[in-house]
Amino acid sequence: MVACLLTAMSLLAFLGLRYPVGMLPILLFEVTWKLIWIGTVAIPHLMAGDMNAATREVLINCSFVVLIIAVIPWRYAWRRYVRTPGDAWR
Question: In this predicted model, what pLDDT tens digit does every residue of 47-60 receive, in sequence order?
């Protein structure tokens, strides 16, 4: 299941190279879940010294989030998704 999720998100990330602004929410979702997983699963296992091979493999795959973080237009994302007022409720 994890391999399927990582593959799907990677393919969507590559699609984001063609349509960067339209795919930005998916890239932000990918960054968020990977950082949460690293912080709640990988780091505690690393600190305890009991990381198994499967967890290590997922950590290696999730560590590429650094590249995604580097290419996201953060100024635009902040203006578009944080500073812009939401739509009014009806």
Answer: 999 999 999 998 99
**Residue 35, C-beta contacts closer than 8 angstroms, at least 6 positions apart:** 65
What's the predicted TM-score (pTM) here? Answer: 0.76
HEC profile for 18-53?
A: HCCCCCHHHHHHHHHHHHHHHHHHHHHHHHHCCCCH
Show the tokens assigned to 90: 């009806």
C-beta separation of 40 from 88 below 8 A: no
Of the candidates 18, 9, 11, 23, which has an alpha carbon nearest to the alpha carbon of residue 76? Answer: 23
Q: Output DSSP code: residue 89.
A: P
**What is the number of alpha carbons within 13 Å of residue 9 lying toward its C-beta?**
22
Across 55-69, average pLDDT:
89
